[in-house]
């Protein structure tokens, strides 16, 4: 038996949950989405800085 | 206590307020938020670095397209830093994109005011036009944007097909469809 394979029923549930979450996120007011965007940007900047420091060390 | 991120979020509102004021002051004839931030009004949040503003310059300025009146207005109002090929307004790099073809002209014409928060409404390009523009550009991030826009309830597929036919994008759309899987659980990129 292939133990790595996710049963289609569970996969379907996971995809449906992900879709519902994305829909909920899309329905947020723009001002709330911008707050999330800022967090993503801050993370991105931090990762870039870490990569740069690693490259220089 | 308000975090630094929350303070910066208020700054995007300030960015839109400055742009709206530019319209009231006659520096630009009309505007609409396009690109990634335009798409953000309709889809789930994702990372982006700048704000694209589609504009119609004031027709009284003549047929030659020059962004100098915009830059000089912004300089006079204290927004003089350049960032990411645009001007920094309230901490956000803003790129002003004059309409250059039939698709961008129509995108600007058909744009609608959407709520930013309880106080501010911002003019935004409709999702079908954002998707058409993304098809025209065709970069990986544009394909991802088309996939996200196709998923939203307010996306008018009839209008979208009219737009891509009218603006000669049908062939590009057909090619892009080969890598978009329109599965029953929603469209996604086929790897």
Fold and architecture overview:
The complex is a heterodimer of chains A (57) and B (191). With 57 residues, chain A is mostly helical. Chain A has helices spanning 8-26, 30-56. The longest helix of chain A is centred in the C-terminal third of the chain and has 27 residues, at 30-56. Chain B has 8 helices and 9 strands. The model of chain B has no long low-confidence stretch (mean pLDDT 88). In chain B, strand 6 and strand 7 form a beta hairpin. Chain B has 2 domains: 1-125, 2-Layer Sandwich (Beta Polymerase, domain 2); 127-191, no CATH class. With 191 residues, chain B is of the alpha+beta class. Classes of the chains: A mainly alpha (57), B alpha+beta (191).
Which tags fit this structure?
heterodimer; A: 57 residues; mainly alpha; 2 helices; flat; B: 191 residues; alpha+beta; Beta Polymerase, domain 2; 2 domains; five-stranded mixed β-sheet; two-stranded antiparallel sheet; 8 helices; 9 strands
Outline of this structure?
The complex is a heterodimer of chains A (57) and B (191). Chain A has a domain at 28-57.
């Amino acid at each position: 038996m292939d133990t790595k394979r996710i049963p289609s029923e569970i996969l379907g549930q996971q995809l449906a949950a992900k879709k519902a979450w994305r829909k909920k996120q899309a329905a947020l007011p723009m001002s709330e989405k911008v707050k999330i965007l800022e967090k993503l940007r801050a993370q991105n900047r931090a990762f870039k800085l870490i990569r740069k420091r690693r490259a220089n060390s | 206590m308000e975090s630094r991120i929350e303070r910066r979020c208020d700054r995007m509102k300030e960015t839109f307020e400055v742009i709206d004021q530019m319209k009231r002051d006659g520096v630009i004839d009309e505007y609409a938020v396009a690109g990634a931030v335009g798409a953000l009004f309709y889809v789930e949040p994702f990372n982006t670095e700048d704000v694209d503003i589609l504009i119609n310059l004031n027709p009284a300025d003549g047929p030659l397209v020059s962004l100098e009146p915009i830059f000089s207005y912004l300089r006079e109002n204290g927004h003089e830093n350049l960032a990411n090929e645009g001007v920094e307004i309230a901490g956000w790099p803003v790129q002003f994109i004059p309409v250059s073809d039939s698709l961008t002209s129509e995108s600007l014409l058909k744009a609608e005011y959407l709520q930013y928060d309880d106080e501010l409404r911002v003019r935004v390009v409709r999702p079908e036009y954002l998707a058409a523009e993304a098809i025209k550009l065709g970069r990986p991030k544009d394909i991802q944007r088309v996939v996200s826009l196709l998923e939203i309830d307010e996306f008018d597929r009839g209008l979208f097909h009219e737009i891509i036919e009218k603006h000669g994008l049908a062939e590009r759309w057909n090619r892009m469809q080969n890598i978009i899987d329109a599965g029953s659980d929603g469209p996604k990129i086929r790897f």
